[in-house]
Amino acid sequence: MRLAVLGGVLLTPDETIEDAGLLIEDGRFAFVGTRKELEASEDWEDELTLDERDVILPGLINTHTHGPMTLLRGIADDLPLMRWLEEEIWPREERLDAEKCRWGAALAAVEALRSGTTCLVDMYFYMGAVAEAYAEAGIRAVISHGMIDLGDEDKREEELRETRRIYRKCHGLEDLIEVSLGPHAPYTCSEELLREVRRLADEWGVRIQIHVAETRDEVRQVKKETGRRPVEYLDELGLLGDDVIAAHCVWLTDDEIDTLARRGVIVSHNPASNMKLASGVSPVPDLLERGATVTLGTDGCASNNNLDLLEEMKLAALLHKVDRGDPTATRAREILRMTTSRAEGVYSLEKIGRIEEGYAADLVILDGSSPRMNPCHSPTSNVVYSATGADVKHVLVGGEPVVRNGRVTTVDEEEVLEHARECAEQLAGD
Ligand SMILES: [Zn+2]
Fold it and tell me: Of the candidates 346, 369, 397, which is a domain's last residue?
């Protein structure tokens, strides 16, 4: 099946092409150029014609979230991190089961797709059910069972057993789901667990997702227990590499920034969560300057409270300007790359994050007739500083239309919302 996408302004994201012409074959881009060039050289069976002001982007990649936490959206705000976790979040998470995580993930998928996200990097529990919900919705995901052993050997074995089970059951599911390893953080995982994670990642050829240097307390705790700061400690264990997605990376020394850059670690910057929990400001301009791979994540809905990467892009751009007292500290094009091409390394089943021949046909079309998209002096500027997820018109994942005219086509949205509300009520009750 050959599908042509005709018209609109294309951001690849490195190049801008007006009156674009794209050809999609077997789920991948077979031609990228102008409509004129496409019409002169190719033919196709099906076509999607866009308005000339519509803006086409690569599918957005959310490099850190906890999908089922959509169920905890708005349950506890405006609290310090540890009180928030210990009194509000963890007691509710004890009541989770596979059914609740399935509907929480289904809600996350609907919300993510409708706001232009085509790939989620997700660490949580009951990931078998989460994977099924994502595959059904037609969204790509790099999932991991979040592992915490706190030095307990039995717990460690249990966590690794669950990770192996999820890997066997879900890796490659519907050609959308990639399984990775999810040690929660250097302060909740033992050295033995972290070493085993590295060994398994090498053996299976999969990614590692981990929270790193999110708060000052974490740095203090890791230093007390290991004599090293979080990034130094992880590097000494041999954990860091270009297959590691490190979420937050707020509290870093210059040496740690260099280490992250040298090892090719994929840093997931989560500005909304870091602001909401007052964790601090990640040194993103320095990370970029030293050549580190910086990407964007929303974190879970309990600390954001949505999964809208278009909103996250604006927050990322603004946060570092005010933090540095320098309006040039972050630039729109760079922010767009963080959410697309810079994040390509999180997924290995297909090439994603760019609109180029051979890459998976994951793309987002923003509605050029939206007031927020007009006038359009610069499509990149409108995307980063003006658009929100509500401006998303169509979304394709692997060439499949998963959002059409702002509605998810793969699942019944009303059914997902109803089940998710029921599950959320059960979690909220005393
Ligand atoms: Zn997180």
Answer: 346
